[in-house]
Write a structure and sequence with these properties.
heterodimer, A: about 325 residues, D-Maltodextrin-Binding Protein, domain 2, 2 domains, eleven-stranded mixed β-sheet, 13 helices, B: mainly alpha, MetI-like fold, 20 helices, about 75% helix, globular
């Protein structure tokens, strides 16, 4: 009797395996998927290599992805999480749900190199001020020049409380000015016309001509040059260096599809994934692409120096630094 | 006394069930979150810092000014539109339905095309600061107030105007004896709604006001999102709840039983406001309203006209928007039918609950509760619909409540005498008499939902993309011009719905 039961169970189990493809659930942010993001192409490429299905679960942005993990904890339905950045990885690590990615980190080509065995970079971008060449003839060549520039030339920033680039600029100011950051914020304040809740709003008002400069990415002009065939928008190169955003992925240790998740992590640094980054996600690839980048990318600003806090430093000070900023701009 | 007792609305089981449904969905949003906060940080999770009081002060100040600037002119524009007839009257009223559907950033961009740096009226108004915040809030809420007041004034018994004309009432007397008794019931309600909308304003306040302009909603968002400090978010949420209850209680005090005569169902014809001075004042009010609302809509047309496209993603987003809007408006009608008939403060509070409890708090609570089903598409859509319906409920109720009041005055005794109830009463009395307000409140629920970005952002995933979220996505991919086209499509859809609702609503006029 026991034998029959056992074999029946095994048959059932086998049947289940044969029937359903393995589904890899990947949490990511909204703009990575959808008709404008690289998600669909990456999914198709990965599915060629396995008998599996990639299921994207898209949430607002990187912070929303992290918060979803905080709410779900160990019960998370994700196998892979893609779309956090290095400002969030310390907190993500503390959740204790991520496992080792097992990928050779020397394959990751990001400024400053990569050593983290838990999170793997899939793209990066230096932040930069993008300016309208019709309104600004002589762009600032340093953060210092930006801060002390003509208050009549207005700029748009993002709010560090609600926006990832906003936090990026706050950290940039802090790496360059340290204890004097608050003083510099008070000076800069006179030039800031808009502190938008997100990059979308700030950038839209910039292209509308409301401000002559906006806080964005070094890669932003590439979009305008390639898709709109215009040189109108360019990024300013700052001598102090540029703050870096590195976007990363990680796998969930307790995932029932861990082998598949590991395979996906390995896939991230291959051309099949990376080819979709430069001209769809408009960020720099974290590893080699099949073809060289379009010529327009050669015209982009190449920061002389990369500025970046460690995830632990950001995690330890973020709240205090945001309060400092808030007091300075409200003073 | 017996008479007035009879006039009290009957509190049936359905009414009770609908109220409990609304109340429990709000409580089901709060409890898991409280539990989550306590299980992570103990009771010390609930704490406040001094900065909160500045935030609160700013929230109240900004919301108060925005409300006054929307409600007072709104009242007089609605009155002017009710008593004057002019070419374009109906279309103006329909156009006044459009701002409610537009996402905040679309409105901000449209305003910059008029009042921005290098534009038509650049420099007229300090767009980035108080001026801009108030302007944007008035753009949203003035037309809303006009429509709500206009619907209420449609509920004034036509005989009252005839009688006052026979008695040679002056315009002032007509206002105080005929219009005000009906309006004073609805003014506090509309003011409370608009106040809460402005207090919860987020994108407008931040984009145009900068970091100095931090509302309670911004602080709640920051705690829930960036800091993931649920204790603080809940504490701020409770402050908002207390604030709202004070507001509801206050408006309940002001709200007296309306004393209007129920009248017969006749075509409403106005005899007042025909003097040249009144006509001039009315015209000025109407022109003022049109000047607030129309230029930004015109900017929307001019920036989106060449970008209008019917791509698969636009079609799918329209489908999601219309579908979600339709179902949540239906749900709203069912809930409002059963909650709008009570006028006690408890029922009022229930109808307002989704504006009282911050949607971000509610959505997070629901998520914790529904976590086992979080990968089900149906569950995601259902929760988006439910949150939309709850957020629109107070508006839908505010159109239905005055109509119910009038129906009750007119027919309840008769129905009681004839022992008419249930389906018979619904078909023969309620539906014919309530048809127009029902259609109008359906429209409002629908428009609020198709324009919603809150529920979709908080609860959406799995590729549920509506028109407002498509606008967000397009803007996020440098496709600002595509976004302008999508925004125009959203505006056109809501205008078509306003047109259809009016045609449909007037069709089934009783008698």
């Amino acid at each position: 009797m026991k034998k029959i039961l056992l074999s029946a169970t095994m048959l059932l189990a086998l049947g289940a395996v044969a029937q359903a493809k393995d589904i890899l659930t990947v949490y990511t942010y909204e703009s990575f998927v959808g008709d404008y993001g690289p998600g669909a192409k990456i999914k198709a490429k990965f599915e060629e290599t396995c008998d599996c299905e990639v299921k994207w679960v898209s949430l607002g942005d990187g912070v929303a992805v992290l918060n979803r993990l905080k709410l779900e904890g160990k019960d998370t339905k994700a196998d892979v999480v893609l779309g956090l950045d290095t400002n969030l990885t310390a907190e993500a690590h503390d959740l204790g749900v991520f496992g080792k990615h097992g990928v050779d980190v020397s394959r990751a080509k990001v400024p400053g190199g990569w050593t983290d065995s838990e999170f793997l970079p899939y793209d990066y971008g230096h932040f930069a001020f993008v300016y309208n060449t019709e309104l600004i003839k002589k762009p600032p060549n340093s953060l210092e020049e930006l801060v002390n520039g003509d208050p009549k030339q207005k700029i748009a920033l993002e709010d560090p409380r609600s926006s990832t680039p906003g936090l990026g600029f706050l950290l940039w100011m802090k790496t360059v000015y340290g204890d004097q950051a608050a003083e510099k914020w008070k000076v800069l304040k006179n030039r800031v016309l808009i502190t938008a809740p997100g990059w979308n709003e700030a950038y839209a008002l910039f292209t509308k001509g409301e401000v002559s400069m906006v806080f964005s990415y070094v890669t932003s002009p590439a979009y305008h040059m390639i898709e709109e065939k215009t040189d109108k928008y360019q990024a300013a190169n700052f001598v102090e260096g540029h703050y870096l955003q590195i976007e990363v992925a990680g796998l969930i240790e307790a995932s029932p599809h861990k082998a598949l998740a590991q395979k996906f992590m390995d896939f991230i640094l291959t051309p099949g994934f990376q080819d979709n980054i430069p001209t769809i996600n408009w960020m720099m690839p974290a590893s080699a692409t099949t073809a060289p980048l379009p010529a327009e990318f050669d015209k982009l600003v190449k920061p002389a120096k990369t500025l970046l806090y460690s995830p632990q430093e950001v995690n330890a000070h973020r709240r205090e630094w945001i309060n400092e900023w808030f007091k300075a701009v409200n003073g | 006394m017996n008479g007035s007792k009879l006039l009290m609305a009957e509190r049936t089981y359905q009414h009770f069930a609908a109220q409990m449904l609304v109340l429990s969905s709000v409580i089901l949003g709060l409890v898991p979150l409280i539990w989550f906060a306590i299980s992570r940080g103990g009771l010390s999770a609930f704490r406040l810092d001094a900065g909160v009081w500045d935030v609160l002060a700013f929230t109240l100040e900004q919301a108060f000014l925005s409300t006054v600037l929307s409600v007072v002119p709104g009242l007089f524009i609605a009155r002017a539109m009710a008593r004057q007839n002019f070419p374009g009257h109906t279309w103006l009223l329909r156009l006044f339905a459009v701002p409610t559907a537009l996402p905040a950033i679309v409105v901000v961009l449209a305003l910059t095309s008029i009042y921005g740096n290098k534009h038509l009226l650049g420099g007229w108004i300090e767009l980035y600061g108080w001026g801009g915040i108030l302007l944007a809030h008035v753009f949203f809420n003035l037309p809303l107030a006009v429509r709500l007041f206009y619907e209420a004034s449609e509920q004034i018994a036509p005989e009252n105007f005839r009688l006052s004309a026979q008695l040679s009432f002056t315009d002032k007397e007509v206002f105080w004896h005929v219009e005000w008794p009906v309006l004073r019931n609805i003014v506090p309600r509309v003011s409370a709604l608009i106040f809460l909308l402005c207090a919860a304003s987020f994108v407008i306040v931040l984009t145009l006001g900068g970091p100095t302009a931090t509302t309670l909603e911004v602080a709640i968002y920051q705690s829930l999102r960036l800091d993931f400090d649920i204790g603080r978010a809940l504490t701020l949420g409770f402050i908002q709840i207390v604030l709202c209850f004070v507001l509801v209680a206050l408006s309940g005090r002001v709200m007296l039983q309306s004393v209007t005569h129920a009248g017969n169902q006749l075509f409403q014809r106005r005899f007042d406001g025909q003097g040249s001075v009144s006509r001039f004042i009315d015209l000025t009010m109407i022109v003022f309203g049109a000047l607030v609302v129309l230029p930004p809509l015109f900017a929307l047309v001019s920036s989106g006209f060449m970008q209008l496209q019917i791509s698969p993603q636009v079609l799918s987003a329209s489908g999601f928007s219309l579908g979600i809007g339709f179902v949540s408006a239906c749900l709203d009608l069912i809930l409002a039918w059963n909650t709008a008939q009570q006028t006690d403060w408890f029922s009022q509070g229930i109808a307002l609950s989704a504006l009282i409890v911050p949607p971000a708090v509610m959505a997070t609570g629901w998520f914790i509760l529904l976590q086992p089903f979080s990968d089900s598409l149906i569950m995601v859509i259902a929760s988006i619909i439910a949150l939309n319906a709850l957020m629109a409920l107070p508006f839908v109720v505010s159109i239905l409540a005055p109509a119910f009041e009038r129906r009750r005055k007119k027919h309840d005794r008769l129905c009681a005498q004839l022992a008419l109830s249930g389906w018979q009463k619904l078909r023969n009395i309620d539906l014919p008499l309530m048809w127009r307000p029902l259609v109008q409140s359906f429209l409002l629920g629908f428009i609020l939902s198709i324009g919603d970005l809150t529920a979709i952002t908080l609860l959406g995933n799995q590729g549920v993309v509506t028109l407002p979220s498509l606008i967000q996505i397009q803007m996020g991919h440098y496709r600002g011009s595509d976004a302008a086209g999508t925004a125009l499509l959203l505006a056109i859809l809501s205008l078509v719905c306003a047109w259809a609702a009016q045609r449909f609503g007037d069709q089934y006029d009783p008698d």
